[in-house]
Amino acid sequence: MSKAARRYNSKKFSDSQHNMRAQKPPLRRKKSISVLASFSSSIVSTILLLASAFNILGVEGSIGVNYGTVADNLPPPAQVAHFLLESTIINRVRLFDTNTEIIQAFAHTGIAITVTVPNDQIPHLTKLGFAQEWVRSNVQPYVPATNIVRILVGNEVISNENKLFVASLVPAMKALHTALVGASLDHRIKISTPHSLGILSGSSPPSTGKFLQGYATRILKPLLRFLRATNSPFMINPYPFFGFSADTLDYALFKPNSGVLDENTKLSYTNMLDGQLDAVFSAMKLLGFSDIEIVIAETGWPSQGESSQLGVDAESAAHYNRNLMQHVTSGAGTPLMPNRTFETYIFALFNEDLKPGPPSERNFGLFQPDMTPVYDIGILRPKAKSSIPTNPAPVSPGPGGPKEKIWCLPKTGADVEALQRNIDYVCGLKAEYCKPIQEGGECFLPNTVKAHAAFAMNAYYQGTGKNGYDCDFEQTAAVSNVDPSYGNCKY
């Protein structure tokens, strides 16, 4: 897998009050299932498409996760996609590259995918021909099966201060947009780029926020003009974790505190994130672009670090991310941007053991690589669990004896609509899994949802390593040592 871009920026700034620093259609069987199952599948697909097409107010519609891959122990992307779809409320994922395996894994899930152009490709993208080829290679083969909604051109480009990358940023975004227009994808996929708080030269109080001198009119104003013209958001990576001190820990963690008053506006701030967002808003307003939506592309809190680090533990991480979710989806907005929700991507999905830097850098994940939660922030669905499903027919080979073959089969009484979703997921993921249950196939009969689900789910289970979580399917399946094969139909 390609490595994700590093999350943090070395350029930092502080202030006296805030101390802030600087997201082929499923294989359809020809009338091979009951009318009820086909109808339910259609409804589910429609709901997924609607959910991704509109900015739903609420947690499930606006909370995403950054899927980094700087690790050597992560589960296969297909398992990750299935886990997010079936076991969590996350329906937006930001990738730090255009990893083909990951993009394909999210096909037919409806999850909104954001992909990223690496910084070193930005100068090449200023040429329309290169931009068109990039779209042909990295986007067109996967849509609409994979719901790609946004392309990010680089990551924290301005803060990294590479003059060539900075100068090429807006021209590259324009060329990429032109390529999308040529492919008739500009209404479906938007172009943006995420920034660290290092783009601000001032942030305290928030009403005085302004962009770095030299970049404001030369780079950021044309960038904002492009975002407005294409109805794209301004994306920012605010991290209260990098801005708190011993005196402002509660302020950073959304805990009760005395607050901070902006003397210019007489508005009081009760959390650091609002102060950071409003500083960005003030800088945008100063250039005349207060109407552009702001998206939080990254924010998070590590669960582990150096033993001497203040506030670096699972309890603090859970408190920050849980309150973050509640705050950005509440509709309260910020003091300068009231009555708003913010599309927000938590960093990160997994702890990543190969990330450079201090231990905290490797411990921003919501989940361990085995997909067990590091802490609970309320994103798991009620029925979701990380343990291996109960085995209806235990398979415990004797000491030294050969392991019995096991199969993944639907549980007794499993809901027919849930089984149909499993069929659509597996068949859409890999057509080979389901060829035998197509009309004329050796396992087409009996033509029932349960029988076809049994074959498809087992094919997936056998093909992905036979791990316990490969036979979860939202708790509709369990492993068995009873061979379900019959006649010419071999499982």
UniProtKB/TrEMBL annotation:
The keyword Disulfide bond applies. PROSITE patterns: GLYCOSYL_HYDROL_F17 (PS00587). It catalyses: Hydrolysis of (1->3)-beta-D-glucosidic linkages in (1->3)-beta-D-glucans. Its EC number is 3.2.1.39. It is a lipid-anchor; GPI-anchor. Residues 1-27 are annotated as: Disordered. Residues 1-10 have a biased composition (Basic residues). InterPro entries: GH, Glyco_hydro_17, Glyco_hydro_17_plant, X8. GO terms for cellular component: plasma membrane; side of membrane. It holds the Pfam family Glyco_hydro_17. Keywords: Disulfide bond, Glycoprotein, Glycosidase, GPI-anchor, Hydrolase, Lipoprotein, Membrane, Plant defense, Signal. It comes from the Eukaryota. GO terms for molecular function: glucan endo-1,3-beta-D-glucosidase activity. Gene3D superfamilies: 1.20.58.1040, Glycosidases. GO terms for biological process: carbohydrate metabolic process; defense response. It is found in: Cell membrane. Residues 406-491 form the X8 domain. The keyword Disulfide bond applies. Its main location: membrane. Belongs to the glycosyl hydrolase 17 family. PANTHER family: GLUCAN ENDO-1,3-BETA-GLUCOSIDASE BG1-RELATED-RELATED (PTHR32227). This is glucan endo-1,3-beta-D-glucosidase.
